[in-house]
Design brief:
Strand content of chain B: under 5%
Strand content of chain A: under 5%
Number of helices of chain B: 12
Largest interface: A-B, 44 and 47 residues
Distance between the termini of chain A: 59 Å
Number of domains of chain A: 4
Oligomer: heterodimer
Shape of chain B: globular
Radius of gyration of chain B: 18 Å
Number of domains of chain B: 1
Order of helices and strands of chain A: HHHEEHHHHHHHHHHHHHHHHHHHH
Largest sheet of chain A: 2 strands, antiparallel
Helix content of chain B: over 70%
Chain lengths: ~550, ~250
């Protein structure tokens, strides 16, 4: 019974897309309703399967052939299926009216159905071939969805750029799959992970371990899909596509990198250096994404870079071994970013009537710039900034798992949590309100609620996705570094952050200001406003390649 | 070692022997002759390799993948669909040098067909375009997604089949070639991946010059329902061939 549901869930949107395409002339606008119905059914089935996964915590395998053609339903795929079909259902319903006046209404719903089906096949793939087919097709369908308006040159240009980046990212996955198949002789993910667990020392190119090389290749695929730095440039520019596609892309498709890394968690448990690379790439991406977001004057591009920053954080979580936390992050991010996109039109319409900003302390500070300056003792404020978030974070984690502090990855996450919390309190200090203690209490209370909620839920995710405590521990071990270096790293970064804050508190108090050359800031800002010139460099490279092709053709007389 | 394999280099084209195919292809004005050439040319290669039992040095594989990359790279700036088809044919067929040692003649023949059939379809589609616009030049024709929706959809899917998109045969063949080479000669696998990447780039560039933008001409007749059914059926058959091949190859 459940096996049938596993097959039906991704198949229903696919079949409906094909049927509605064939009969589009007869069905006309009813195509949308049927498309919504198919995704609604898929969503219901995914909920049944999720319930079954929570109740039994068993993996289901459905095989259609020898070697490949396998669907795997484990906690990860059941959770992701529910999220994807849920978000897709919302996007479908939203699109029924939103796209009503657009040309190619039927085509849009057919593509949306095909995309949903591909995403569901991707998360329920039980072998490398099905995974690669779905992975490739997502890029192709996204290209057509982003370029839905065939007359819009900008959307066509960036749809193509997205496809090119995706294809660049698809190929490492193919290479990794080939390597794994050559080494272990199976396409099945279940068998593959079992064999890797038994012997992870199989060597490949230049005597390097297969798991290490394939782990790196899979990570590159995930980087391209999740817009990590240097493979990110497609994301902020894809806003010319229809809003529902942006919502689906930011809420679902871009998260595929996090899913892929989690899918290959048994492989990453056996690696040594790949997770460190993930951490570094994720860290750089989150910092650069956030900086670029702050410098944008185009709100849609700012949202694009915000997603990039979040994806960086998600990959960074994988890099410290907190795989389940990355899944929680991608779901939470998907929900809030999807809401932002789908709500954008309504917010703009409302804002035309009224800005809707309550005239409270925040309003006075941000918009009217009429803050009442009532300075608090800087030393007291600095102490609160540094200590309060730490107490809350430690207490929250102590609550769910007492040996949490033995894991390096967990410490790194605590560190980031602490920096975030302290920055929050620090920002409150900078707001200089007339009643700072009330504001502080509220901020600290909100922070505590968020941290405790986040900790408890992520702990729940970990128990669900990685019920074997050894698996979770192995990931943390794989992400670990030499203890001495780790402590030095944490200490140096902590001191740098604390020194920065203290300097700002002190200079603010003494009104001396920070002594940094203005030209450095200006140049830095100019560089950021050019988006670090990444697109310029890519354009230059592609022009050179095309020029080379042109020269070769002329030289060889087009033969 | 005999140099008989050089004969094969004309039919599984290796640069510069590939120029012979290119010249012949351009010489044939009739689309049916072009199709005949595209379908039979690599089959002669298959016949030579297996029936004459020719021994081929290993290093030829490097030459083959470089030929594939060369033509894929050059196809990036081609705007004429018919010429693009010929460039892609050379780039795709060169891949067979990396596949043939591990597979029998019947399998290789099917695989060659898997590559050649979408190319033949594209030649047919280019005649449909020429009949309507007197040209098959991307940029000169434009916006057919709006003016000729049926033709543009068939064209898009055919292009996807050529650039080795799942579930068409090209995808599985590229996968098999990479699997065959990855542990033995990883450089070849990587070069094949580069070719694959360039096909996508090239195909999408060409497509964008044809289907997007505002229609350049109005009142042009779209594909008839029966022709659409024919082309659609052919594409479905090619996709099924891909799945069958995948079942046997993987």
């Amino acid at each position: 019974m459940l096996q049938n549901l596993v097959v039906m869930m991704p198949a229903i949107p696919l079949l409906m897309a094909i049927i509605t395409y064939v009969y589009s002339k007869q069905l006309q606008k009813h195509v949308a309703k049927l498309s919504v119905l198919s995704v609604f059914l898929a969503f219901l089935l995914s909920l049944v399967l999720l319930y079954s996964a929570i109740a039994d915590n068993q993996s289901l395998v459905v095989s259609f052939g020898e070697g490949w053609g396998i669907l795997l339903f484990d906690p990860l795929s059941s959770l992701m299926s529910a999220v994807i079909s849920g978000i897709s259902l919302v996007v479908h319903i939203y699109s029924v009216r939103y796209m009503a006046d657009e040309e190619g209404y039927t085509r849009f719903f057919v593509l949306l159905g095909l995309m949903t089906s591909s995403l569901l096949f991707m998360v329920s793939a039980g072998d490398l071939i099905v995974l690669m087919i779905a992975w490739h097709l997502i890029g192709v369908f996204l290209y057509f969805l982003l370029g839905h308006d065939t007359r819009n040159q900008a959307s066509q240009r960036y749809a193509m750029w997205t496809l090119i980046t995706y294809r660049f990212g698809d190929l490492p996955l193919v290479l990794a799959a080939a390597l794994l198949f050559d080494a272990y002789g199976t396409w099945s993910l279940v068998d593959l992970f079992r064999l890797i667990g038994e012997d992870a020392s199989v060597k490949s190119i230049a005597g390097l371990p297969v798991v290490e090389v394939s782990g790196l290749l899979i990570a590159i695929s995930a980087f391209a899909r999740s817009a990590q730095f240097l493979l990110h440039s497609w994301l902020p520019y894809t806003m010319s596509g229809p809003t529902p596609v942006s919502a689906l892309m930011h809420a679902g498709i871009v998260n595929a990198g996090g899913f892929l890394i989690n899918r290959f968690a048994p492989l990453y448990m056996q690696t040594h250096d790949v997770l460190h690379l993930m951490f570094i790439v994720g860290l750089i991406t989150s910092i650069i994404g956030s900086m670029l977001m702050l410098t944008q004057n185009d709100i849609k591009k700012a949202l694009g870079y915000s997603t990039m920053g979040q994806m960086g954080f998600m990959i960074m979580e994988c890099g410290v071994g907190a795989f389940s936390l990355a899944v929680f992050h991608l779901i939470a991010h998907g929900l809030f970013k999807g809401t932002l996109f789908l709500g954008a039109g309504g917010v703009i319409a409302e804002a035309r009537k009224s800005d809707g900003v309550p005239k409270n302390e925040l309003y006075t500070f941000v918009l009217e710039r009429q803050a009442k300056i009532k300075k608090q003792p800087w030393l007291v404020m600095a102490a609160i900034t540094l200590v309060m978030p730490l107490i809350i974070l430690v207490a929250a984690h102590w609550l769910v798992e007492q040996d949490y502090f033995q894991k390096q990855g967990a410490i790194v996450l605590l560190f980031f949590g602490w920096v975030t919390g302290a920055q929050l309190v620090f920002s409150a200090y900078k707001m200089q309100t007339s009643n700072p203690w009330k504001l502080f209490t509220m901020i600290i209370a909100s922070f505590a609620i968020v941290v405790i909620g986040y900790t408890v839920i992520s702990h729940g995710f970990n128990v669900f996705l990685y019920p074997d405590p050894n698996a979770s521990d192995l990931l943390y071990v794989a992400a670990g570094v030499d203890l001495v270096w780790f402590e030095i790293f944490v200490l140096v970064i902590t001191l740098a952050v604390i020194a920065g804050w203290l300097m700002v508190y002190y200079s603010d108090r003494t009104a001396k200001g920070l002594q940094v050359k203005k030209s450095i800031w200006l140049n830095f800002y100019a560089l950021l406003s050019r988006e670090l010139m990444v697109m310029d460099i890519y354009n230059w490279i592609s022009k050179r390649i095309l020029a080379l092709a042109q020269k070769l053709n002329t030289l060889l007389r087009w033969n | 070692m005999s140099a008989e394999w050089l004969l094969v280099a004309f039919f599984f084209p290796l640069f510069p022997f590939s120029m012979v195919f290119m010249l012949l292809y351009k010489k044939f004005a009739n689309p049916w002759l072009k199709i005949l050439l595209v379908l039979t040319w690599p089959m002669i290669g298959v016949y030579l390799v297996y029936q004459m039992n020719i021994t081929i040095p290993d290093w030829v594989q490097y030459w083959a993948v470089l030929t594939s990359v060369l033509y894929a790279l050059r196809s990036l700036v081609i705007r004429d669909i018919e010429i693009w088809t010929a460039f892609m044919a050379v780039s795709l067929w060169a891949v067979f040098w990396t596949v043939y040692p591990k597979h029998d003649m019947s399998m290789l023949s099917q695989a060659v067909m898997g590559f050649s059939l979408p190319l033949s379809m594209l030649i047919l589609l280019s005649t449909e375009l020429r009949r309507r616009f007197d040209s098959v030049y991307a940029g000169l024709i434009g916006g057919i997604a709006d003016s000729l929706p049926r033709l543009s959809r068939i064209l898009v899917i055919t292009m996807l089949a050529i650039i080795a998109t799942p579930v068409f045969p090209g995808f599985f063949l590229m996968l098999v070639s990479i699997v065959d080479q990855m542990l033995v000669v990883p450089v070849i696998a990587l070069t094949l991946a580069v070719s694959w990447f360039l096909w996508t780039w090239s195909g999408v560039r060409l497509l964008q010059g044809l289907i997007t933008g505002s229609p350049h001409e109005s009142g042009v007749e779209d594909l008839s329902f029966s022709a659409t059914l024919f082309y659609g059926g052919a594409l479905l058959a090619i996709a099924l061939l891909g799945l069958l091949l995948a079942g046997e190859l993987l």
